[in-house]
Amino acid sequence: MFSKYHYLSYSHNNAAHVFVCMVNDEIAGFISVLHFPHPKVKNMKRVHRLVVLPDYQGLGIGIKILNYIGDFYIKNKNRFTILTSAPSLIYNLKKNNNWICNAFGRSQPHQGILIGSGSHNRITASFELKLRKTS
Q1: Which of 20, 23, 89, 107 could be joined to 124 by an S-S link, Cβ 3.0–4.6 Å?
Q2: Domains of the chain
Q3: What are the tens digits of pLDDT across the range 67-117?
Q4: What are the CA-CA distances from residue 107 to residues 30, 120, 134 (Å)?
Q5: In 10 A of CB 48, how many CB atoms?
Q6: 20 vs 26, 41, 101, 114, CA distance in Å?
């Protein structure tokens, strides 16, 4: 349902935790999250896919999904990151005080990745969600 709205390949990692966003009892988007095996950091989680359907884009739903699911992981003592090449998402995360930009620039292709299946040679940005104060 969401694959035609995502720039990456159609394959989706079966190990990802998947969450669906509903607006007025209609599916508006989804996010999937994977454990990220980091050599120095335990309990790192990263966004595998984030898709907001076209009828709901531009309303801030993507950021709301990221913050809500990110808070869930942070409260469970995980770190939460996303790597994206979507210009609107980069723009909104950069101006959001809850997110730290860790890297910005053109990504290089990884060995074994098919040309056209990823974000290589695109401007990408990596962000991490800070622990947020909730009232």
Answers
A1: 107
A2: 3-129 (3.40.630.30)
A3: 999 999 999 999 999 999 888 899 999 999 999 999 888 766 555 544 554
A4: 24, 5, 34
A5: 19
A6: 10, 28, 25, 28
Give the dihedral of Cα atoms 51, 53, 57, 60; nearest 10 deg.
-50
Q: How far apart are CA 72 and CA 38, in angstroms?
A: 20
Number of neighbours of residue 120 by Cβ within 10 angstroms: 16
The two three-digit tokens of residue 111, written as one number: 């060995």
Taken as a whole, the chain contains a residue count of: 135
State the distance between the two ends of the chain, measured CA to CA, in whole angstroms: 36
**Rounded CA separation 129/65 (Å):** 12
Name the burial class of residue 26, with classes exposed (0-12), middle (13-18) and buried (19+) by CB atoms within 10 angstroms of its CB: exposed
Token pair, residue 101, equals 């930009």
pLDDT above 90 as % of the chain: 57
- pLDDT score for 39: 82
DSSP code string of 56-96: GTTSSHHHHHHHHHHHHHHHTT-EEEEEE--HHHHHHHHT-
